[in-house]
Design a protein that fits this description.
The protein is α/β, with parallel strands linked by helices. It has four domains: about 5-125, Rossmann fold; about 145-260, Transcription Regulator spoIIAA (2-Layer Sandwich); about 290-380, 2-Layer Sandwich (Transcription Regulator spoIIAA); about 385-445, OB fold (Dihydrolipoamide Acetyltransferase, E2P) (Beta Barrel), CATH 2.40.50. It has 13 helices and 19 strands. The protein has a six-stranded parallel beta sheet with strand order 2-1-3-4-5-6, with helices on both faces. Strand 15 and strand 16 (about 400-405) form a beta hairpin. The radius of gyration is 23 Å and the shape is globular. The termini are far apart. It binds 5'-deoxyadenosine and iron/sulfur cluster (SF4). Iron/sulfur cluster binds near residues 163, 169, 203 and 239. Iron/sulfur cluster binds near residues 161, 163, 166, 168 and 239.
């Protein structure tokens, strides 16, 4: 087989990172090897994100930058995949007529066949079909791209929630869960290749299995936690309306489940939550947080908030600030509301001016910054179990190595250790000594697991 080079440029969420691995694995079967250098590639894939306008702009500016390469090297194949490909289809050709292949979010498994058609000279090759089925074999294409000890694994695709601002149900299709046995098999394979931590991915993992009457998400977690050699389990994302007591109890009962939950609230105002179609109220959300903390008091909680949703008044916004003060999140991701043409909110009136959205975003960041630092400072003097990801960089001092890892609560910890091998992938106790806004620093108590 002729040896060809593939470069994948991924924009967006963890699901796209996982899809990139499936693309690489599938294309390996027709002779493509990964390269980090676009200039040397025979095929470049732009793996796209449509969640906000800014992400979409990034896609088109990267695609624009490929024109020079394509002019220099006319045989170069350019493929656009992921959410923007799904959303725009052939319209991509208006802005980048030199695109050879356009493939949607459900076409990853068919990619090798699509690329073969392009190799035969067919132009353009377009596949943006969305199906109601899940093709389990598509998930076994993955090429192990590196030696990372922590990997993502998609357990369900699509979303049925139709939040008013969100493009996901329109570009990833209806919610559908994978078969538990197949997920377990994939994780066992990863563990056999040295992986210690998996993050289970879905738009709303709490509703895993419900539609097809498979097992529940807490049951899946229990099965995953029985896999020998796997040390840590994480998951994202949870919709607050579906957060069950069984899942809360899993934090208390399953040692391997990391003590962190990402529970996007989006807004602290009941009026806005209703307009967003979130299907919970501020009080319901707060009750769930209180209950979670009864099950596991030290659980780290993070969230997403949208600033300046259409019709958001200063009073609504203050409700959000107050909710942040009440919850005291460990960390927060904040976004300026962005119109998505396929989402209903793009047709809502009373749009908040960009300047105001930016001011609210800054206010949210300022408020949360204080809590994040405070939460980090509370860990000073404590010994945390750190799963070591690898070394971050060589220290200025000869012989010293800077290592990096995460706490169970997902906080980054840097530490120095003179040994330069053997630590990666180990879970070791580290005493926390200094807190920064986005990381911690400490000293290992031992360099062997306890
Ligand atoms: N504008 C701004 N933020 C958005 N998000 C989703 N859609 C939009 C949008 N149109 C945010 C939500 C979600 C996160 C992944 O992205 O907060 O939880
Ligand atoms: Fe989008 Fe809402 Fe589905 Fe999350 S739950 S992916 S915000 S529609």
């Amino acid at each position: 087989m002729k040896y060809k080079l593939l470069h994948i440029h991924t924009i967006g969420c963890q699901m796209n990172v996982y899809d990139a691995e499936r693309m690489a694995g599938g294309l390996k079967t027709i002779g493509y090897e990964l390269t980090p250098f676009p200039e040397s590639a025979d095929l470049i894939i732009v793996n796209t994100c449509a969640i906000r306008e800014k992400a979409e702009q990034k896609v088109f500016s990267f695609l624009g930058s490929l024109l020079t390469l394509k002019t220099k090297k006319p045989d170069l194949l350019i493929a656009v995949g992921g959410c923007v490909a799904q959303q725009e289809g052939r319209k991509i050709l208006r802005r980048a007529p030199y695109t050879d292949v356009i493939f949607g979010t459900h076409a990853v498994g068919r990619l090798p066949r699509l690329i073969e058609q392009a190799e035969l000279g067919i132009r353009p090759v377009v596949d943006i079909e969305l199906s109601e089925q899940i093709e389990e074999s598509d998930f076994f294409l993955k090429a192990v791209s590196d030696e990372s000890i922590s990997r993502f694994i998609t357990i369900m695709q699509g979303c049925d929630n139709f939040c008013a601002y969100c493009v996901v149900p329109h570009v990833r299709g209806r919610e559908i869960s994978r078969i538990p046995e197949s997920i377990l098999e994939e994780i066992r394979d990863l563990v056999a290749s040295g992986v210690k931590e998996v993050t289970l991915l879905g738009q709303n993992v709490n509703s895993f299995g419900k539609k097809q009457c498979l097992c529940s998400f807490p049951e899946l977690l229990k099965m995953v936690s029985r896999i020998d050699g796997l040390e840590r389990i994480r998951f994202t994302t949870s919709h607050p309306k579906d957060l069950s007591e069984d899942l809360m109890a899993a934090f208390r009962d399953l040692d391997k489940l990391c003590k962190h939950i990402h529970l996007p609230v989006q807004s602290g105002s009941d009026r806005i939550l209703k307009k967003m179609n979130r299907k919970y109220t501020r009080d319901i959300y707060l009750e769930k947080i209180a209950k979670l903390r009864q099950f596991y008091p030290e659980i780290a909680v993070s969230s997403d908030i949208i600033a300046g949703f259409p019709g958001e008044t200063r009073t609504d916004f203050e409700d959000t600030l107050e909710l942040i003060r009440q919850v005291e999140y460990d960390s927060l991701f904040v976004f300026k509301y962005s119109d998505r043409p396929s989402a209903p909110a793009s047709r809502f009136s009373d749009k908040v001016p960009d300047k105001e959205k930016k001011a609210r975003l800054d206010e949210l960041l300022e408020l949360q910054g204080r809590y994040t630092l405070e939460k980090n400072q509370k860990l000073i003097g404590k010994t945390e179990q750190i799963l070591v990801d690898g070394f971050s960089r060589k220290s200025e001092k000869a012989g010293e190595i800077q290592w990096m890892g995460r706490t169970s609560g997902n906080k980054i910890v840097n530490f120095t250790c003179n040994s330069d091998t053997g630590l990666k992938g180990k879970t070791i106790p580290v005493r926390i000594e200094t807190a920064f806004p986005h990381s911690l620093r400490g000293t290992p108590v031992k360099t062997e697991p306890e």
